[in-house]
Amino acid sequence: MTTETLSFGADVSRLLDIVAHALYSNRDVFLRELISNAADACDRLRYEAITKPYLTVDDPSFKVRIYRDPRTRILTVVDNGIGMNREELIKNLGTIAWSGTAAVMEQLGQSSSPQDKLSLIGQFGVGFYASFMVSTRVKVVSRKAGEDQTWVWESDGKTGFTVREAAPDEAKQLIAGRGAAINLTIDDNSSEYLLEEKLRMVVIQYSDHIDIPIFLGRGDGTDADNGAAQIPVNKASALWMRSRNDINDEQYVEFYHHIGHGMDKPMMTSHWHAEGKIEYTALLFVPTLRPWDLYDPGRKNATRLYVKRVFITDQCDGLMYPWLRFMRGVIDTEDLPLNISREMLQHNPVIQKIRTSVAKRILGDLDKLAQDNPMQYGAFWGQFGAVLKEGLYDAPEHRTDLLKVARFHSTEKADGLVSLTDYASRMKPEQEHIYYISGENIDNLRNSPQIEGFKARGIEVLLFTDTIDDFWLQSVLDYEGKAFKSVTKGDVDLSKFNVPANDQTEEKKQEPSKDESLRRLLVIIQETLKDDIGEVRYSHRLTSSPACLVAAENEVDLRMERVLRVHQKYETPSKRILEINPDHALIRRMASLAKAGSTGEDMADAAHLLLDQARIIQGEPIPDPADFARRLSYFMEKSLAA
Ligand code: ADP
C-alpha cells in the first residue's frame, strides 16, 4: 500500500496557522463545521440519487453519527453522504478553491481581534480546517458513492498531508460503505469534546435545524445498535418547513450560520410560505456584513434551491436577482419536478415567478425595516445599498419598490440618509426637479461650488457617491414625475426661487450681460481658454466661489465622464463649460482690468488659474501642474511683495 505525501496549498498553510493561534475563543464551531459538511454531503447524494437510485440502494436513510472514545482520545464524525475519492480529498482538503482567498488572507493578516478573524474566516468557510483547533491529528476515511476504493487522508495540520488506500478495518468505519468518517485526535486542552454532555449540547445548539438525524455514540461504533444511540440528538426536520412560532431567534441564527457560513448575525430574517399561482417556502437572511466576494464576477448565487425538501443546488443563477445576491437562505418549492436538471433551471418559468415574488416580498420587508428601525436600515443601506441600486436599471419591474427603499446622502442632513419621499415632501412649490450632484467623496460634494446657489435658496441637493449612481440615472429619469437633474450639467435657472430675505449677497446682483466690463472679461477668458473649454458663462449657481466647471446639457455628466475614462470607454474628453461668478471680488477685479484694456499676460495667467482651481475642486487632474505652479508662484510673489 503506497502512501503519498503532499503539501498544503500556500493559502491553507496560512489559514491553518491562523486557526491554530487565533481562534481559541469559540472552538465549538469545529463540530458545527464538520456536521455542516456531513449534512451537505448527504444533500448532494440525495440529489444525485434522484437520477441514479442505485447509489443509495444499500442504505437510503441518510444520517450522521458522532462517536467518542475517551481511551484513544478519538472523536469521529461519520456520514453516509456522497463521500470523496482520492482526487477530491487532495483538492478539497488540500487547497482553497476560491479566487478571492488572497484578498481575505490579506485582511486576516491585518485585523487583530479574534472575533474579526473568526468572522472573516467564516465568510469563506474555514470549515474543515477548524478541526485543527482541537486536535493534533485528523484522519479522513472516505469512499465516494458508486466507486469501490476507500481512501485515507491524514494530517497533523502543519505542513502537509498523506493520502493512501484504506486498510479493510478502516473502511469498516463507513456506514453502508460510502461517505466520510472524520477522525480527530483530540488534544490535551480540548478533552471536553470527549464528554457526551458537551457534544450533545454543541449539537443541539448549533445543528438542531439540520434535517438529517445526528446520533451520538461511544467507542468505535459498536454501540450503534443500542437503544440510546437510536434516538437522534437533533429534531432532524427542515427548519424552514416549521411554523415561525416554533422557531426562536437563536435557531434562526444558527441556521443562518449553517447555510451562510457566516459568523455575523442576520440583519433581517424573512420566513414565509407562498401559495397561489406558485407554491414555495422561503427562509432568507440579509447578512449584517458584506461578503468579501460581493463584487466578484465569478461569485455564484448563495441561495439554496430545494424541491420538496430535497436540496437541488446553490448555483441557480436565475433564482435571485443579481442585485439581491447578498441574501442567504433557502427556497423550497413544490412546483418543480425533483429530477429537473440544473441546466434547465435558469430559464424555467417557475424559477422566474419565484424570483419576482421573492424580490417583491424582500423589498416589502426592507421597507418595513426602514420604517420600524431607520438606524438599522441605514446600516443595511451602507453595506448593500450600492448593490440594490443595480436593480434600478436591471429590473424596471421592481423600480418603484426599489426607489421607495433607496436612501441617499443629502444637503439637508449632515449625517444620515434621506428617502426620495422625504425629498419630495421638502421640494419647493415651484421646484420641478430632484437635484443631485455626483462624486467620489461626500465631504467634497458638500463643499462643491456647484451647489452653493442651491444651498443659499434652501433647495435640497442629493449627494451621490456610488459609481453605480451614474449608471442607474441613465435609465431612471424621474421619481413620481419629478425628473432627476444633475447640478453639474446644463444651465440651471435658480432665479424663480426666492433667496431668504436676510441673504445680502443676492441684493447686489445685477444682470452681468448688461455690464460692459463683465462682457469684455468673458470674451478675454473665452479667447484665452479656447483650447481647453467649450464655453465661458456667468453662473447662477455660485455664491462664494469664483468659478466652477459644468457639463453642457447634451454632454455626459462630469463624474460619469471620469468613471468612463477609468474604464477606458471614453477617449476624447469633452469640452466643459466654465462658469464664473460675477459677484465674486476676484471676478470683479478681473472685469475692471478688462475694462481698462488689460489683455496681457496677467489676465491670461489668471484665466488659466481660474480653470485649474475649478478642476482641482472637481477632483480632476490639472493637465500641466508645472504651469499651474509657475502661475501660482507668480501671483503669490506679487501679492506678498505689495
Ligand atoms: P466548505 O464546506 O466551506 O466548502 P470545507 O473546508 O469545510 O469548506 O470543505 C471543503 C470541501 O471538502 C467541501 O466543499 C466538500 O466538497 C468537501 N467535504 C468536506 N467534508 C466532506 C464530507 N463529509 N463529505 C464529502 N465531502 C466533504
TrEMBL record:
ATP binds at residues 33, 37, 79, 84, 92, 99-100, 123-128, 342. Keywords: ATP-binding, Chaperone, Cytoplasm, Nucleotide-binding, Stress response. The keyword Oxidoreductase does not apply. Residues 563-642 are annotated as: C. Gene3D superfamilies: 3.30.230.80, 3.40.50.11260, Heat shock protein 90, C-terminal domain (1.20.120.790), Histidine kinase-like ATPase, C-terminal domain (3.30.565.10). Its main location: cytoplasm. Signal peptide: none annotated. Molecular chaperone. Has ATPase activity. Belongs to the heat shock protein 90 family. Residues 1-342 are annotated as: A. GO terms for cellular component: cytoplasm. InterPro entries: HATPase_C_sf, Heat_shock_protein_90_CS, HSP90_C, Hsp90_fam, Hsp90_N, Ribosomal_Su5_D2-typ_SF. The keyword NADP does not apply. Homodimer. Pfam families: HATPase_c_3 (PF13589), HSP90 (PF00183). PROSITE patterns: HSP90. It is found in: Cytoplasm. It comes from Micavibrio aeruginosavorus. This is Chaperone protein HtpG. GO terms for molecular function: ATP binding; ATP hydrolysis activity; ATP-dependent protein folding chaperone; unfolded protein binding.
